[in-house]
Amino acid sequence: MKEKIVSRKKGIVVSDKMDKTVVVAVDILKTHSKYKKKYRSTKKYKVHDKENKYKIGDAVEIVPCRPLSKDKSYIVA
Fold first, then answer.
1. Average pLDDT, integer, range 10-35
2. Is the sign of the CA dihedral 41, 43, 64, 20 positive or negative?
């Protein structure tokens, strides 16, 4: 039996103004292909928060799920 590999991401809540949705900023450390210098890249995800319990500044872990709306396909773990 194959196990599913789930890509969990850790980030910080940057917005909680929407109902049942938070915006989470995830930082990724990348390496430049030519110059081999490391740089930080940030991507924001809209994440489903069922109980509206996460506020700005909270550290959360997000997990992919089926698409819940046009750009919301993660839930808070």
1. 96
2. positive
Place of tokens 């599913």: 4
For residue range 24-71, what is the model confidence (pLDDT) as tens digits? 999 999 999 999 999 999 999 999 999 999 999 999 999 999 999 999
The closest of 34, 38, 24 to 74, measured between CA atoms, is 24
Torsion angle, alpha carbons of 71, 4, 58, 42, to 10 = -60
DSSP-based three-state secondary structure for 74: strand
Who contacts 61 (Cβ-Cβ below 8 Å, separation ≥6)?
Answer: 8, 9, 10, 76, 77
Evaluate whether the domain defined by 9-76 bears CATH number 3.40.50.2300. Answer: no
Instruction: Provide the 8-state DSSP code for 2.
Output: P
User: For the whole model, what pTM was predicted?
Assistant: 0.86
